[in-house]
Specification:
mainly alpha
Length: about 220
């Protein structure tokens, strides 16, 4: 239904929600249980079948949200880099145990590495992993970033826009946005890494007002 041209926008939105819920309930649990220590060639080949499709875009986005998710103290609000809605889709009805979250993140990194996707697509995910609170995730993220995304084009407009979203979150003054869809800025470790990347990018320097918001974020946050 999602890819049909004559489907109403509201129906498409519900399709996305249910697809993401399916990934959470089934796919990521399998990834955490089965692929946290590696992935064999036969299984990797099956994951590569969705590369380049709309399914891979949805899958990667949900994987990024899972990597960004960090447990917060009770009543501590939404995790950095996520909206309330995104955080709720990652956790489902029950909070994730720290060990389960670790296994899911490691499994995601192993699966995405073997999907052989363009560097610009996986760069934000690996970068987020490098700023995680758990050392095994950081180590694996740095390995994947160096091996699979070191050649990413830092002047790719789509990539830079995604990185600015990680740094700034939803821009202040954005109209007509549900409070639960408002994305928080990334955690300090991630933002520090992002700043060094923006300094290497002409596209980032010319991205107004995102660059200005980034500067204010460095000064006042």
């Amino acid at each position: 239904m999602y890819i049909e041209d004559n489907i109403a926008p509201m129906v498409k939105k519900f399709c996305i929600v249910y697809i993401e819920m399916a990934f959470d309930r089934i796919h990521l649990k399998v990834i955490g249980a089965c692929h946290s220590y590696g992935i064999d060639d036969e299984v990797a080949a099956k994951y590569r079948l969705i590369s380049g499709s709309q399914d891979s875009v949805i899958f990667l986005e949900f994987c990024l949200h899972t990597i960004l998710y960090q447990p917060t103290a009770q009543g501590g609000g939404c995790p950095a880099g996520l909206s309330i809605a995104q955080s709720n889709r990652v956790t489902g009805k029950h909070p994730l145990k720290i060990d389960d979250l670790l296994m899911r993140k490691l499994g995601i990194l192993n699966v995405v590495e073997n999907m052989e996707l363009a560097s610009e697509l996986v760069y934000p995910l690996y970068l987020a992993a490098c700023a995680d609170c758990q050392e095994p995730v950081v180590k694996r993220g740095e390995e994947c970033l160096k091996k699979k995304a070191s050649g990413a084009n830092l002047d790719d407009a789509n990539l830079i826009n995604r990185l600015f979203l990680l740094f700034n979150g939803t821009a202040a003054g954005t109209e007509n946005i549900d409070p639960e869809s408002k994305v928080n800025p990334g955690n300090p470790g991630l933002r520090g890494r992002l700043m060094s990347i923006f300094c290497q990018s002409i596209t980032a320097a010319n991205s107004f007002p995102s660059t200005l918001q980034c500067i204010f974020g460095c000064i006042y946050d």
